[in-house]
Amino acid sequence: MSKVLIVEDSLTDKEILTLCLRDRGITVLTAKSAEEAFEQVKSHQFDLIILDVVLPDRSGFEICRELKEDITTMQVPVIMCSTKGTEMDKFWGLKQGADAYLAKPIDQEELLETVKKLVKA
C-alpha cells in the first residue's frame, strides 16, 4: 500500500485530497506547514508528496527544491497543487523539481491518474 504526504494549509483542500486518495486505499498523512512536512519526512518514508505552493511558513517551491536536493528524499515524486495555475507557475514548479503540477480546484480524476503514473503501487 502506498503512503502519501499531503502538505496543505487549507482544511477544505486537505480533506478533498485526503478522501480522494483514501478511497483508493492509499495511506495519507498530512502537514499544514513546511516545519510539519519536514518532521513527517524524517519520521516516515513516503511514496509521494503532494505539496501546496502557498503555505504559512515557506513556499512549496522552496520545500520542493529542498526535498529534491536531499539524498534521502530526492527520489520521492512531488506533485505541486496550487491556485497559482498559470503556465509560468507550472514551469517554475517543474523547474524546482516537481514531477507534476496540478491547478486548483483539483480534478480528482486527474489527481488519481497523476498519482498512478508516479507511484508504482
Give a written overview of the molecule:
The structure is a single chain. The chain is an alpha/beta fold. The chain has one domain: Response regulator (Rossmann fold, 3-Layer(aba) Sandwich), CATH 3.40.50. The chain has 5 helices and 5 strands. The protein has a 5-stranded parallel sheet with strand order 2-1-3-4-5, sandwiched between helices.
Instruction: Calculate the mean pLDDT score and round it.
Output: 94
The main sheet orders its strands as: 2-1-3-4-5
Considering DSSP H and I runs of 4 or more, what fraction of the residues is helical? Answer: 40-55%
Indicate the proportion of strand residues.
Answer: 15-25%
H-E string: EHEHEHEHEH
Number of helices: 5
Task: Give the topology, please.
Elements lengths: L2 E5 L3 H12 L4 E5 L2 H10 L4 E5 L7 H10 L8 E5 L4 H9 L4 E4 L4 H11 L3
Parallel strand pairs: 1-2, 1-3, 3-4, 4-5
